[in-house]
Structure formats: structure tokens, C-alpha cells
Design goal:
The complex is a heterodimer of chains A (261) and B (340). With 261 residues, chain A is mainly alpha-helical. Chain A has nine helices and no strands. In chain B, the strands form two sheets. Chain B has a six-stranded parallel β-sheet. A four-stranded antiparallel β-sheet of chain B has the order 2-3-1-4. Classes of the chains: A mainly alpha (261), B alpha/beta (340).
Chain lengths: 261, 340
């Protein structure tokens, strides 16, 4: 059943992504509703999958890298559905779909252990810390996607050529605002998650601690510099994309270090 | 029942001829009354815009009714014959659907005509000049126009300097409400662009011109402020859109000058529209972060692209229209009885 749910959500997102590429190729890029429908359906399927997995593990299903990939795909979709629609950014869904798809495909096909790993100790503070951290990463993922859209729109405007993307992407000012606010949201959630981690008194591997601290500090620095107008929107967008890349690259390492031995 | 169509449009004749046919708002009721008095005519709608004057009518005796319509138009124009007359339903229906979809407009894909058609239909309906067939015809035409607009790219992009500028400003700032515009030079094109921006909610317009009186006059017309040309940079704080059109032989907005101004400009984007030839703004300004510079060539190129896209969409639009024409003709075939 769980395999079916994952497969179905992946297939739906794959179709949605293919449809977006087809529309882009034909110069009629308006995939708003089909994208939204695909993401809502995928979210429902992933929620069901997580719930079923949680029943088996008797805890929040974020014990293995496989679990984490799926949880992050779910949290990115969650943040898109909660926040993305509030900004009414056209095409944010079209950019969210490939990232969620990438996470699901990595979870399903990358070489990793997919057997359920049940932790002996289930401290609710630690579970809260871990799950909220991944939801914060979902917000950072959306910030990174808004950053990608900002950079594309900036390039379109600088090129002075018009074109499909220019007319379909949201105004660059709105993208800059969304980028910054999503970083704020992610940072807020990550701060609460870290606080929960400290409350739990959990033992943390040094490399995991410093990697997580670097991520928190990088985003905190971005919002502070943005707030005092030292960091221009374009640089914020570039840094948020780079930071997302860093998260995606280090996530497997962090998970490996924190996996139950 | 037959749908007839007669009139003149921008394709058939120049403005001097079209204006002879024009039926002003104050004359509409009289025109509708006159048409309704024609024996055998069951309904009529009069469309009169700057680009077309067209009468749509329904009748079971099309030939004598069309003769009477011709005579009526001739009497209004001191003997000028209406160049476009058809007493067959198929071409009349197809023509209306094309007009409603903007395919027959001077700027292909423009949407203003749909509003004008709706207004013409509503006026005729208010005066009791429409019948079942015309009601059905016009409702169908509005539906076709909507479908053409949503399912094709016929309305995509802007096709004039003013509308391209407004579109680009929208892609930079989103909502233009509260934005501040500065005009450097008070040329006709820059005035038109400024007016387009004001119509989209721009808050303040500052006009700087070498002749201060001209700046003051223009500022007065568009509700802006005039400043002396030599002091334009001092009034530049918080300006979001700069429109240049001076006759200066060399760039007056250089990268160095703008960099020093932008230091106190916060981090808001700056949209520069350089309409001057030779150019007023140094091209390297576009390399500055948050600055988007468009000269007249780049704006006209975008307008051309939009027109090309629209032209390429015509075939798809025609196919959609043909489907609807067939559907409407089928309905006509099943409802031959006239009714008011």
C-alpha cells in the first residue's frame, strides 16, 4: 500500500512536470491549475503514506534517509500549499513540482536502506525537533525556488527580449519579497526546532551540530543583512539558492550521522 | 431566419470615409427606430466605433431588408455606399465572431472591441431592438471571444510603446499604485507612456524639461510636478520609473552619475525607458544591480514579437471560430421561426 502511495504521487508529479514542459515548449506556459491539482493530490497521498509508515514505526517516520527524503518532499509541498498560494505567485507550483519530484525519485531509486528502522527511545521533544527542522527546510526549499524564479526573471528583464517566461513569471519585486519572507519563516521554524532540541538534551554529533548551526547562521545572516539593506534582493536570491543546494547536499550526511547505530 | 450584416470598417476605407458612417451615441436610438421600421426586419444591433460602423440584423426576407438597410446607410452618408454587405447568415455570423475575438481589429487581438460590442448589444436590447436570434448570436459571440482569449495567445503581450512600457513596469513592480515617475524631456511619446502609467495607478509624475514652461504645462495636464532640468537629479529620490526623451546629443544619464544617485535610492528597482535618439542613457547602466534599462529599439522589438505571436495564433483562432459558426448555424437550422 505504501509503495503504491509513493508510486502514485511520483507518477502524478511526473505527469504534471511533463505537462509543464510541454506547455513551455509550445510557448503557452499557464499550468497553474493542473500543477496545483497535482500538488494537492500528491500531498494527500504522501500524508497517507507518512501516516501509515508512522503506524508501523510507532513514531514520526523520519528515522532513515529514505524517510527524511519523503518527509521533506511532504514538508515542501505543505509549505507551498500553505504559503505559496498566499503570495499568489504564478508558476511557483511549476517550480515546486520538480524539486518534490526529485526528492521522491531519490527516495525511491537512490541506493539506500529502505527497511523500517524503529527507535527504542521516542522522546517527543526530539521528534518535534526533527520534524520541525524538516518543515523549516521545506520553507527554505520554497525560498530557494522563489530565488531561482527571481534570478530567471532578473535575467529576462536584463536581456530586454520579452518572451514567454517574462510574461508568465511574477513581478520581480514580489519574488524578492516572497524570497525574504520564506527565509524568515524557515528561520523561525528552525529556531523553534533547535530550541526543542536543546530542551530535549539530546546528544548531537559534532559534525551534525556544526552543519546545522552553519545552516541556521547562514539564513540568520541573510535576513539580518537584508533587514539593514546591506544585501540586495538579487544577492539574497542567489544565496538562498546556494543555501538550498547546501541543505540538499548535506542532508544525507546529517541523516547518516544521526541514524540509530 | 437570416442574419444580415452591413457596414464599413478600417479595412474597407480611410477615416475620412468611415466618419461619414459614424453613428454617435445620441443618434443610436433614432437609428435603431429607423431600422426597426423596415418591413421584414425582426431585430437589429448597431455597432459604431472609431474603426467600424456595422449593422447586424435578422430577417426572413433578407434581400428587400438589405436593400432598405443600404438605402438607409446611403441616406446618412450623402450617397456613399456601404462597402461590406452580406445577406447570408454564414458570412455574417463568422464576421461577428471574428470581430468579437479581435481578429478583425486594426491591432489583432485587442480586447476593447468586445466591450464595445457588449455595449452595442445592450443598447439594442434596452430599446427592444433584438430578438431571439440576435440574442443568441451575440451571447454566442461573447462566448467565442472569451474562449479565443483564454485558449490561444491572441491577446498576449503588448503591441505599442506605451503598453509595452506598462507591461514591463508591471513585471518589475507588480502593482503600480504609489509608484513615482520622472520624465526627462517632454516629448509626445514619453507623455503618452506617462499617461499610460498614470492610468495604471502611478502616484507622482515629475517633469523636467529644458524649457521649464513646457515642463510646467505637461505637469499641469497630467497632474504632476515640474522641476528645472538642471536639478532633475536632486528630485530623483524615490523615483521608480525614469522616462527619457530629450534631444541631447550625448547621454545625460551616465553610469557614474546614476551610481551616485542610487546610493540614496534604497534598494528598490529602477526602470528606465530611454525613448531618445540619440540615447539619453548610457547603455552600461543596464549592468547596475536593480536597474532595468529599455531603449526604443528594445521596446519596439518586444511589441513586434507580440504582434508576431498574435499573427501566428490566428490560424488556431479561426479554427475555434469555425467550430462555433457551425454550431450556431446548426442552431439556426433548428430554430427557423422568427420571434421577438
Amino acid at each position: 500500500m505504501q509503495n503504491f502511495l509513493l508510486f502514485a504521487s511520483t507518477l502524478i508529479l511526473l505527469c504534471s512536470f511533463g505537462y509543464t514542459l510541454f506547455r513551455l515548449g509550445s510557448g503557452r506556459l499557464r499550468p497553474g491549475r493542473p500543477n496545483l491539482a497535482a500538488l494537492v493530490t500528491a500531498f494527500a497521498l504522501l500524508s497517507a503514506d507518512l501516516w501509515l509508515r508512522g503506524q508501523v514505526l510507532r513514531s514520526c517516520p523520519i528515522n532513515s534517509l529514505f524517510d527524511v527524503m519523503i518527509f521533506m518532499a511532504w514538508s515542501t509541498t505543505l509549505i507551498y500549499l500553505l504559503v505559496g498560494s498566499a503570495y499568489r505567485l504564478s508558476l511557483l507550483g511549476a517550480f515546486t513540482t520538480p524539486l518534490v519530484l526529485l526528492l521522491l525519485l531519490a527516495a525511491e531509486f537512490a541506493p539506500m536502506d529502505r527497511s523500517p528502522s524503529i527507535r527504542e527511545l521516542r522522546d517527543p521533544w526530539i521528534e518535534f525537533h526533527a520534524s520541525l527542522s524538516l518543515i523549516a527546510y521545506g520553507a527554505f526549499a520554497l525560498a530557494g525556488l522563489a530565488g531561482v524564479m527571481y534570478l530567471i526573471q532578473d535575467r529576462q528583464l536584463k536581456k530586454r527580449k520579452g518572451g514567454t517566461l517574462l510574461y508568465n513569471l511574477p513581478p520581480i519585486t514580489d519574488l524578492g519579497v516572497a524570497n525574504t519572507r520564506l527565509i524568515w519563516l524557515g528561520l523561525g521554524l528552525l529556531t523553534i526546532a533547535f530550541a526543542a532540541g536543546f530542551v530535549s538534551g539530546m546528544q548531537v554529533n559534532t559534525i551534525k551540530f556544526w552543519t546545522s548551526a552553519t545552516i541556521w547562521f547562514a539564513y540568520a545572516l541573510m535576513v539580518v543583512l537584508r533587514q539593514v539593506h546591506t544585501l540586495a534582493p538579487r544577492r539574497t536570491a542567489t544565496l538562498s539558492v546556494a543555501a538550498l543546494g547546501f541543505i540538499l547536499l548535506t542532508l544525507p550526511a546529517i541523516q547518516y550521522l544521526s541514524a540509530p547505530k | 431566419m437570416t442574419i444580415l450584416c452591413a457596414g464599413i470598417n478600417h479595412r474597407d476605407a480611410a477615416l475620412e470615409i468611415r466618419e461619414k458612417f459614424a453613428i454617435g451615441n445620441h443618434e443610436l436610438q433614432e437609428a435603431l427606430n429607423h431600422l426597426r421600421a423596415i418591413e421584414g426586419l425582426s431585430g437589429a444591433v448597431v455597432v459604431s466605433t472609431c474603426n467600424r460602423v456595422e449593422l447586424y440584423a435578422s430577417s426572413i426576407t433578407p434581400t428587400p431588408v438589405m436593400d432598405a438597410i443600404r438605402r438607409y446607410l446611403k441616406s446618412r452618408t450623402s450617397g456613399v455606399e456601404a462597402p461590406f454587405c452580406t445577406e447570408d447568415s454564414l458570412p455574417s455570423v463568422k464576421h461577428l465572431f471574428r470581430v468579437a475575438s479581435g481578429l478583425d481589429s486594426m491591432v489583432v487581438g485587442e480586447t476593447e472591441i468586445l466591450g464595445q460590442l457588449k455595449q452595442a448589444y445592450s443598447t439594442a436590447a434596452e430599446h427592444g431592438a433584438t430578438n431571439t436570434h440576435l440574442n443568441k448570436l451575440f451571447q454566442h459571440a461573447f462566448r467565442v471571444a472569451k474562449q479565443v482569449r483564454t485558449e490561444t495567445s491572441i491577446t498576449r503581450g503588448a503591441t505599442s510603446v506605451g503598453s509595452v512600457a506598462v507591461d514591463l513596469a508591471g513585471k518589475i513592480f507588480g502593482d503600480l499604485g504609489g509608484r513615482k515617475v520622472m520624465l526627462l524631456g517632454a516629448g509626445d511619446t514619453s507623455e503618452r507612456v506617462a499617461r499610460s502609467l498614470v492610468s495604471r495607478g502611478v502616484r507622482t509624475v515629475i517633469v523636467a524639461n529644458r524649457t521649464f514652461d513646457r515642463a510646467a504645462a505637461l505637469a499641469d495636464q497630467i497632474g504632476g510636478l515640474a522641476v528645472h532640468f538642471d536639478h532633475w537629479h536632486t528630485a530623483f529620490d524615490e523615483v521608480d520609473i525614469l522616462i527619457c526623451s530629450t534631444a541631447a546629443p550625448h547621454p545625460i544619464v551616465t553610469r557614474e552619475k546614476l551610481e551616485s544617485i542610487l546610493r540614496r535610492h534604497s534598494e528598490r528597482p529602477l526602470f528606465i525607458i530611454d525613448l531618445a535618439v540619440p540615447r539619453d542613457v548610457d547603455a552600461s547602466v543596464n549592468e547596475l544591480e536593480n536597474v532595468y534599462l529599455y531603449d526604443i529599439d528594445s521596446i519596439e522589438e518586444i511589441a513586434r514579437q507580440s504582434l508576431n505571436i498574435r499573427q501566428a495564433e490566428i490560424v488556431r483562432c479561426e479554427a475555434l471560430i469555425d467550430t462555433h459558426v457551425a454550431e450556431f448555424m446548426h442552431w439556426m437550422h433548428n430554430h427557423p421561426t422568427p420571434s421577438r
